[in-house]
Amino acid sequence: MTTLDRDALFIGGTWAAPAADAVLEVVSPHSEEVVARVPEGSTADIDAAVAAARRAFDEGPWPRMSPAERIDVVQNLSGLYAAKLDEMATIISTEMGSPISFSSLAQAPAPWMQIEAFLGIAREFPWEERRPGVLGADVVVRHEPVGVVAAIPPWNVPQFTILSKVVPALLAGCTVVVKPAPETPLDGYLLAELLVEAGVPEGVVSIVAGGREVGEHLVRHPGVDKVAFTGSTAAGRKIGAICGEQLKRVSLELGGKSAAIILDDADEAAAIEGLKFLGVMNSGQACVAQTRVLVSRERHDAFAASLAAAIGSMKVGDPLDPATEIGPMVAQRQQERVTSYIRIGQEEGAQLLAGGEGRPDGLDRGWYVRPTVFAGVDNKMRIAQEEIFGPVLSVIAYDDVADAIRIANDSEYGLAGTVWTADADAGLEVARGVRTGTYGINTYTMDFAAPFGGFKASGLGREFGPEGLAQYTEAKSVYLSAPPM
Ligand code: NAD
Questions:
Q1: What pTM value is reported for the model?
Q2: Is it the case that residue 56 has pLDDT exceeding 70?
Q3: CB–CB of 395/300 below 8 Å?
Q4: Is 253 a catalytic residue?
């Protein structure tokens, strides 16, 4: 028994015994030891959670409360969450290996900032507005809750991708069943405790961790009105197809293969410093990682050498050590996957400038890989087209700015991108040409006031901003009778 062990599931707002006795063992990616055992949710647990959510939506107080009353409860959650940031960051680093330096920014404080941003957006949101119609009478346009939401997050940024769904769903008056990934069931328990303490009524939220099959059961469940998914493009296609058949509302946040375009006037040191974070953040396990680095043919060799020196010397090690810059991969299969791409890059003829196959020096256990930089990469190579999800960067040469934009767009993905330049106007012009849902000029900082999401195979719909809140509502138009003629 460790202090992180649990024997119950959070179903319908209370702690319930699991229907089956399967157990999820949470294994530390650093020590390869079991750090916690929790119940693995089964399809019967999902049925119970959806039934509770359905009841709470169809008969309970939550959807019938005013937006201001719901805002008060979410405000309580914000205060409670703010007091638990360190604990949340440590739990996530323990379960999935994120360096604590990253967790202390993005795994806990960023989700809390989402709550605050959504509270502000909900206060201004046009929940019910009266518009002048064209037929002589006004129309009342209401934004009503979409219903029971299935929220399915991945393991790489678990709280970030749970709160991006649960918070707008709650503010809109929905009820929610969350199915965390089997690698990261622990952070959901802390969130569940905070939801109860904040005063979220019975039935409104359930959190049941489990695998793919359980996830698919939730997606197909007739009691679910909307699916909000973050994960791989392969799973997203499958979930989108099921929702299409059932005409369920669906939003999909999927993979990426983002390009950082380094213009010739860029400050090289600043760009490399930026890529040390943006290229390999969360040990490269980030959907918005800038993994294709586009440099003019003249500057390619020098820039690639400097980048390789910077990435190759990053500190790899124990995720709980504050000095660690790159931690282990989440699981052995992910370590093997990343290593196989390092091999593929060499077979494809890319030039290996840093890293390579094998373990980093001094780390004889844990699912570590060596931070790797390839140069002379052709954008047609698999390492430039496929999402590796590890600390592996590809430097690609371009002929001119138009060619850089063409290469950036030569991807099935369209999630994020950056341009590095001394000329902000030139940067904005590049941003206009790249087909991605988000873009950064000399930076990439997600702002929760603005919509986030993907073009092309990176997804469907948007999270954050008023656009993200609107995804949890249905618009209803009520036509008022025209004044007598
Ligand atoms: P994954 O698709 O394997 O799993 C994601 C979640 O979906 C997990 O909870 C999993 O159990 C569940 N799942 C898998 N198949 C399912 C199915 N058929 N039906 C229902 N549920 C199913 O992805 P992953 O490996 O956990 O996460 C990494 C992926 O997530 C990467 O591709 C990454 O780019 C993407 N991601 C995207 C964003 C974004 O905002 N666009 C953010 C983070 C991660």
A1: 0.98
A2: yes
A3: yes
A4: yes
Give the mean pLDDT of 440-461: 98
CATH classification of 9-254+458-477, choosing from 3.40.190.10, 3.40.50.300, 3.40.605.10, 3.40.50.2300?
3.40.605.10
Catalytic (active site) residue 32: no
Q: Which of 40, 174, 287, 325 is catalytic?
A: 287
Is residue 315 within 8 A of residue 327, CB to CB? The reply is no
When pLDDT is cut at 50, 70 and 90, the band that residue 482 belongs to is: confident
Annotate 261-281 with b (16+ C-beta within 10 A) or e (fewer). bbbeebeeeebbebbbbbbbb
Q: Options 3.30.470.20, 1.10.760.10, 3.30.70.270, 3.40.309.10; which CATH number does 259-448 get?
A: 3.40.309.10
- Amino acid 369: pLDDT: 98
- Please state, in angstroms and rounded to a whole number, the distance separating the CA atoms of residues 214 and 224: 14
198: number of Cβ within 10 Å: 18
* CB 238 less than 6 A from any atom of ligand 1: yes
Residue 485 confidence (pLDDT) = 55
